[in-house]
Amino acid sequence: MAVIEVNELRKRYRDMVAVDGVSFTVEEGEIFGVLGPNGAGKTTTVECLAGLRTPDSGTISVLGLDPRRDAAELKQILGIQLQSSGLAEKLKVWEALDLYASFYRAPRDWDALLDQVGLADKRDAAYGKLSGGQKQRLSIALALVGNPRVAILDELTTGLDPQARRDTWGLIEEVRASGVTIVLVTHFMEEAERLCDRLAVIDSGRVVAVDSPAGLVGRVDGEQRVTFRTSTPVADPVLKALPEVLNVTSSRGQITVTGTGNLLTAITLALAEHDIVPIDLRVERASLDDAFVALTGKKIDF
Amino acid sequence: MMKTLTVETKLFLRDPASLFFAVLLPTVLLLGLSSIPSMRDPIPELGGQAVIDTHMPAMMTVLAVVMLAFTVLPAAMAMSRESGQLRRMSTTPVSPSRLIIAQVLINVGVAIIATGLMIVLVNLVHGVAMPRQPLGFLLVFLLGSASVFAVGLLIGALAPTAKSAPGIGSLLMFPLLFVSGMWMPREAMADLLRQVGDFLPVVPFGQALRDTWGGAAPAPLNLVVMTATLLLAGGAAVRFFKWE
């Protein structure tokens, strides 16, 4: 069942078109990624979903509600963590949760939530004294305190160190496991690849593709590369004769074979026939990075 | 609303500087001033009254209210905008205006407490008379505070950054305090300055406080200008409020 349907969404600010005909649907229970470079229109799209901005045209339905018309009702069941939203420096962690819980009709038990996001020992700490990762975890807790069915998380791990980022990913997976549908806005390939069931790749206000990470990679997966060393030298024709192989190069004992189809099996079989054992065998496939470059003609860089 | 108010009150109390300046400074100043003998000398320009009788207490009341309204409140408002608190609240079922309303209520409450404390203390310690026209004084205090806070709300609504908000407030506060007679009684000012002052914010508040403190009725013009300030500044603040 689709919990979010976005159809031909358009939004322009003065002379700049931020969102130019975006459409996608989010299914119940999935982690749906919105991936794109900075300025692609991700945040504007999400703000329209949350009813914080009025689209110029297009329709949005979130859990069957219209974000503008049913804003009050929608905010009861939609949890949102936006970029650049903070709290008072001297507000304590528990006070923040207690306060935000009071905004909702049927809030979650925030004490348990505090445990879940791993901030139980920071209960009495002031917001200003928290580390970046702790602030983000508190942000997630605040987005979840209303017991939402859908949570939108915008650029959650930007600015976090790798460890904090991994912890946050683990937390997001736990949240999904508890039955919350998640829309994850990100410009991190690794994050999208690791967490998302499906992704909308957005560039310059348009959706370039919607697919699973593997599906997106598959689209550009025309060519593979296999590298290995061998204990005994291989005669070139052994590999070049294979129909899957396009090219063979070797340098300092390392052989690199490019090709298509079932390249790896073809190579290992051919080597086995000649009693050659490959060492350090590696297959390099296209990554989501490559897929992104192929789809948008840009490299996400920051 | 109660929870928001409680939390904002706690945050206010966690900032010792604003607590000191807003609540204690006017009282401490007035206690100090009223212990200076020359403050008690009758002055012909004041109709034979001493500076300490009505002028200084009225000025210190104005100081307490204006300091909260022009610097503490706009700083708190601009800070909640800048730190993204308003943005975060806008994602919840509760409107971020609730936070602003709580901040206004707290500052008004603190102004009332600060003024009450000052009136009682200087009366007990130095025998400075209580307002002789209590009902009129209360009316003027409430209307005047509301008008001054409306201007503060407008400053907070438009201030570009949390740093600049109290600066802009001070920039407006000092000239208005001067024209109100903080450093020189209005009676000693040029006629033009006095006449212009009647139509500015803050100034009629101080004048009407003096009048009611001394036992006279507030001048209708003062009441009209205070009401107009309240409506104009308050309306503009709501209309032009920058949410982000």
Describe the model:
With 302 residues, chain A is of the alpha/beta class. Chain A has two domains: 2-218, Rossmann fold; 222-284, 2-Layer Sandwich (Alpha-Beta Plaits). Chain A is built from eleven helices and 13 strands. In chain A, the strands form three sheets. Chain A has a six-stranded mixed beta sheet with strand order 5-6-7-3-8-9, with helices on both faces. A four-stranded antiparallel beta sheet of chain A has the order 11-12-10-13. The longest helix of chain A has 16 residues, at 162-177. Chain A is elongated. The mean pLDDT of chain A is 88. Helices cover 72% and strands 2% of the residues of chain B. Chain B is mainly alpha-helical and 244 residues long. In chain B, helix 9 (203-213) packs antiparallel against helix 10. Chain B has helices at 2-13, 16-34, 55-82, 85-89, 97-126, 134-158, 164-180, 191-197, 203-213, 220-240; strands spanning 42-43, 49-50. The model of chain B has no long low-confidence stretch (mean pLDDT 91). Chain B has one domain (2-240). Chain B has a two-stranded antiparallel sheet. Chain B is globular. The chains are: A alpha/beta (302), B mainly alpha (244). The interface between A and B is medium-sized, with 28 and 20 residues.
